[in-house]
Amino acid sequence: MRSTLGWRLGWALAALVPAAFLVVFFAWPAAALVLRGFHDGTSWTLEGFTTVFGSRRTWGAIGFTLGSAAVSTAACLLLGLPGAYLLYRCSFPGRDPLRAVITIPFVLPTVVVGVAFGSLLRPDGIFGGLDLAGTPTAILAAMVFFNYSVVVRTVGTMWSRLDPRLAQAAGTLGASPLRTLRTVTLPALSPAIVSGASLVFLFSASSYGIVMVLGQTRHRTIETEIWFLTTQLLDLPSAAALSITQLVIVSAALWLSGRAQARMTRALKLQAAADEEQGLSLARDGAALAVTLAVAVVLLGLPLADLAWRSLHRGGDFTTVNYLQLAAEGGAGVSVWEALRTSLVTALAATAIAVTLGLFVALVASRRPRRRVARSGLAALESLFLLPLGVSAVTVGFGYLITLNRPPLDLRSSIALIPIAQAVVALPLVVRTLLPTLRAIDPRQLEAAATLGSTPWQVVRRIELPHLGRALGLAVGFAFATSLGEFGATSFLARPDNPTLPVLIFRLFGRPGAENYGVALAASVVLAGLAGVTMAAAERLRPKEVAAW
């Protein structure tokens, strides 16, 4: 009895530690900002709702948010399904490097992506003649750039596990390849498709940085409206109403994604990839190859290649002066290398926090209680830790400023607040990486170990932790790359004399002069290169059962 009680207390403590962190550094700041908007200092009021939802501007922002997210999701599915098939079902030279390349955009800072697409659409850019700067097309292209790999990875990993005999049997019975795809393959992939689509919708609906950089104030989303109402009009009641609207959208997307991912991981059950990886056939796979290469070269590669090319030019001349001046302080008052050092230190601290807490969350959320109430509680706990994926950085950043500014947590002027904020952003990705590995363990393996006399702790130590260790490298890579490029919350918290690299890049782009622009381009290439190397290394450590983000 005592050991059972101690075991339960241990799990309760494992759940309370990350829950306390999330409450103090996410729920409390966000709730404080929202609640302040509903309280005028003396009484509670719903004036914010009536004002904001009676405005045509608000409904325009909501419509653009949902519409752009829906179109982006459809485009990612249309382009991503051929990529999932080609990169996870076929075997050909260069496949693994190509997988790593398409992952890089997901962890790039929005300011870098905005500049990269902006350079393509400048009057002197490659697509300058199309007059797409500041249009919904530019915003949608950037959204697909970010989220294409979500569909490819999520659907592709499950596709690699499908028994090929199902499609072969359908072909033997006379079904055409198209009919086999429609009636056999796609239904089998439906959990992965729904999971990937809901995540793309979530990320697209919360693309604050993309719309701020590329929208040029012509197009507004819920997040940019929250920023406008909070910083420009100081209208907290209206901003609070929009924050709640965003939370509803985020919660619905996370619930749908969570259910789909649970179905998908139950189907995988740690089974190995298909025994036979088919070789590439131009006759059979030519269309998938053409679509994937076009996306990789034009949509993913061209913006980054153009960014690198422009970083080697100044005043129309080919030169390395932009890189040579990375050590100079310049107009921003701090050098790029100093900002990079700050970014590396804070990213390492944020990674340590996020991975440690993510381990606790994954172990707790992967329990398999018999009671339905307990299972529902664990599902709610998982959803709670995924909420930071879609909550506005404006909400969190301003929440920090109004809550963590007095004892006992007076952190507003402390550099420690930046890695904490970055850890909040990275924690959902860590959980998304570790949890599928634990859920895919065959329950019979755990039951057999318990039957043979293993204690619950021995089952965790000998079976679950070794499986979890296989996904640890990928979790560390995601956490580090995400923290390194985080811009939203950090932009509100970084001190002027000690910015992170993404914040410094944004400042440089906002300053006039070819020198600042060129150094910012070079710094963007450095930041993108670090993110790419990190994700390439992490991808090699990815366990095959990790099918979602």
TrEMBL record:
TM stretches of this protein: 59-88, 100-121, 133-152, 188-216, 236-256, 287-305, 344-365, 377-402, 414-435, 471-494, 517-538
Family affiliation: Belongs to the binding-protein-dependent transport system permease family.
Protein name: Iron ABC transporter permease
Record's keyword annotation contains Cell membrane: yes
Entry's localization field: Cell inner membrane; Cell membrane
Annotated source species: Tessaracoccus lubricantis
Keywords tagged on the record: Cell inner membrane, Cell membrane, Membrane, Transmembrane, Transmembrane helix, Transport
Segments forming domain ABC transmembrane type-1: 62-257, 340-538
InterPro entries: MetI-like, MetI-like_sf
Topology in membrane: Multi-pass membrane protein
